[in-house]
Amino acid sequence: MRTVAGILVALAIGAILWWGMQTKDERSELPSALAGRPAPAFALEPLPSFRERWGGELDLADYLGKQPIVLNFWASWCYPACYEEAPILEAAWRRWGDRVLFVGVNTQDEIDKAEKFVTQFGLSFPNVYDPRGKVGIDYGMYGVPETFAISADGRVVRRHAGSIDATQLEAMIREVLP
Amino acid sequence: MTPGMLGQLGLMLAVFFSVAGLVSVVAAWVLRDARYVRVARRAALLAFLGTLVAFGALEWALLTDDFSILYTARNHTTASPTWVKFATLWAALEGSILLWALLQTLYTWLAGLRMRDYWTSPVALGTLFAVQLFFLVNVLFVINPFTPVPNPPADGPGPNPLLQNHWMMAVHPILMYLGFVGLSVPFAHAIAAMVTRRYQTWVSETKWWLIFAWGFLTAAIFAGGWWSYEVLGWGGYWAWDPVENASFIPWLLATAFVHTAMVQERRSLFRSWNFALVTLAFAATVFGTFLTRSGVIESVHAFAGGPVGPIFLGFLLVILTTGFALLGRVSSEVRDAGSVRLWSREGLLLLGALVFVVMAFVVILGTLFPLLVEAFSGDKVSVGAPFFNQLFVPLGYAMLALMALGPVLPWRRAEPETLRALAAMAVALVLGTGVGLALGWTLWVSLTAGLFLFNLVALAWLVASPIARKARVLGGVRTGVGALAWSRRRYGGYLVHFAVALTALAIAFSQSYRLDVQKTLEIGESWQVAGRTITVHALRAVEESHRYSVIADVEVSGLGLLHPRLNYYRTSRTPFASPAVAYTLGKDYYLVLQAFDQKDSEWVTLRLVVTPLVLWLWASAVLMVLGTAMILWPSTRRVQVGRTPEVEA
């Protein structure tokens, strides 16, 4: 009798703890304080391999309000999240690049390590260099990686914290496509 | 050879020798042949060495910035100072379980060396092998830190910034694991006693290990409190955080067991109690590990949830089921033969153990309650300090009273001569409380002060009366004092009791009389507060390889310059405040840099927390560790008796 009761108690504890493990979801859709507001502009130097195509300075203000923008904050030391999403971002850029501008903001990094990352994933969308991470502060970013979708009228629409997958990125892009 | 390959090799060897050890003890048990136990002991040493190789390989990878393995790629950065690189090994899930496995193999080997009993040692050693195999298999197959990374990054994110903020992080986890893992040895002895139905000797065989682990748990809990005080910047040392609780539960159960074990040794009572307590204490250590690594609770300690949650839950249930199934089988044989009078040492020891068990239950309930509520009603609730404090205050008073009374009362029944001691203690209690009230202290603080004196008188009587008795018999007080050395263990216990009473006093004062104020000051401006003048001299920035810090130079009159700072790490936008503390015998002055003028560096916002007697909390931790060491130190007398003939020959 006592053994049965003991087993039941143990099972009940086990069930509760099991349930506790299942219900903790990872919330990556973070509400942004900027939601619906104009996206902060910035002008930064592109990483060396993008200077030929984009010049010595990329000014976001030139594109804001003209076309949708996907802004991705990353760093070469951000393993594994940034490494997971880099190929996904590149693939999406190749698919939607004619209608949506992708801008990578390399954050708090060293230039040679960042270049190595760009080469490793063959990134072809423009990536700018922000060693002090000032743009991240303007966007209220917690930590890399984070991805923001900016609509064609220049407002922040969506924010995704952490590594983004292809489905989430596609949903984000469809929301800002005209 | 790369660190990754060496680590894999070490782990494989460790698993191999653990299996070999397990097979050997099964052979020893089935064939009733003690030679296989000797083989198992050697396997235990080799398993330890294998794990040590894996540990060394991971340190090698960390110290040489090798990012070709999963653990370093995810948790390491070249920017860390060397000590952080070293401590990064236990800053995340995989490495911390590897450290756990290393200590487990060390305990298995050392405990195996001291196992002498022909009947029980195969089972006890087998239990330890099974436990270490669990951890090693997890490290090798489920959460392998040496998993190769195909395209290694040039740098990684580094460990959690909170863990880089104070050197104590290099010490606290090791102390904690030494305590947690150490409890596996008493558990193994208990399992062996129940399996072999030999109930007499296991307690005395395991007592040393129990107190050893208890000492480390105690040190670890205080070290964690100190870290929390010096790093988290909220001015407190204990927050009833789920993981603080998870370390407190095994401590409470182990403390209960330390006391009931004495009764079993002296009077062969509480035998089934002890089996239950030791099972629960060990299960509680696994429970704590489960909580931190499963994502069930949210806490500063929680590691990212991995696949190990369900595995640890299963392990926890296996431990509980094994312990209690065995106890159910033998419970009729270990029923207490004698009866216990309440008004005797064993009666009060039982009562004290009950208090500790109730405390453990309160902590378990408070920790799991939010989960229970969420499971049944879907609401998110949090159980905060008020719940725990309300229940712990009366339980704490009961503990303080029993702690003084227990050792004063003799075994079996009270004798007339103890009545005088009890009378003196009662006077001290009334006097202490009365003086406290007269000084205007709160009732609770006064009562704590009274109970502190109550304990002090009890300890004085306990120390003085045997000296007086010895002096009467042997003549001369000095001979009596010399006799002290003969019962070092007992005095170690008294020292621990004194330190616990001191802890209670420090907690009562620091919780009741706390000043917590905040003010924004211009650079150069002074602030008159708490009887001191606080002047901000400068605000400056310092760039280090792994972080960027903003430091305020603040002078506190009579205490010199303090440097509260805000540290910025690249993995987090939120800065981490590093408070600056000036300890004095009476009060602590604790300064936190809350905010500063980011444009022109013209002002700072400071928070000042003045707390009484916190220094005594840390002092009592040192006394507790000293007392434990006195109990554990090998008895020189016994060694001399054994050696004398050799010396003379």
UniProtKB/TrEMBL annotation, chain A:
CDD domains: TlpA_like_family. One of its GO terms (molecular function) is oxidoreductase activity. One of its GO terms (cellular component) is cell envelope. InterPro entries: AhpC/TSA, Thioredoxin-like_sf, Thioredoxin_domain, Thioredoxin_ResA/DsbE_sf. Keywords: Cytochrome c-type biogenesis, Disulfide bond, Redox-active center. Its main location: other. Residues 33-178 form the Thioredoxin domain. The keyword Disulfide bond applies. GO terms for biological process: cytochrome complex assembly. This is TlpA family protein disulfide reductase. It comes from Oceanithermus profundus.
UniProtKB/TrEMBL annotation, chain B:
It is a multi-pass membrane protein. Residues 90-294 form the Cytochrome c assembly protein domain. It is found in: Cell inner membrane. The chain crosses the membrane at residues 6-31, 43-63, 83-103, 123-143, 174-196, 208-227, 247-263, 275-296, 308-327, 348-371, 391-409, 421-444, 450-468, 494-513, 613-633. Residues 313-632 form the Cytochrome c-type biogenesis protein CcmF C-terminal domain. GO terms for cellular component: plasma membrane. GO terms for biological process: cytochrome complex assembly. GO terms for molecular function: heme binding; heme transmembrane transporter activity; lyase activity. Keywords: Cell inner membrane, Cell membrane, Cytochrome c-type biogenesis, Lyase, Membrane, Transmembrane, Transmembrane helix. InterPro entries: CcmF_C, Cyt_c_assembly, Cyt_c_biogenesis, Cyt_c_biogenesis_CcmF. Required for the biogenesis of c-type cytochromes. Possible subunit of a heme lyase. PANTHER family: CYTOCHROME C ASSEMBLY PROTEIN-RELATED, CYTOCHROME C-TYPE BIOGENESIS PROTEIN CCMF. Belongs to the CcmF/CycK/Ccl1/NrfE/CcsA family. This is Heme lyase CcmF/NrfE family subunit. It comes from Oceanithermus profundus. The lineage of its organism: Bacteria, Thermotogati, Deinococcota, Deinococci, Thermales.
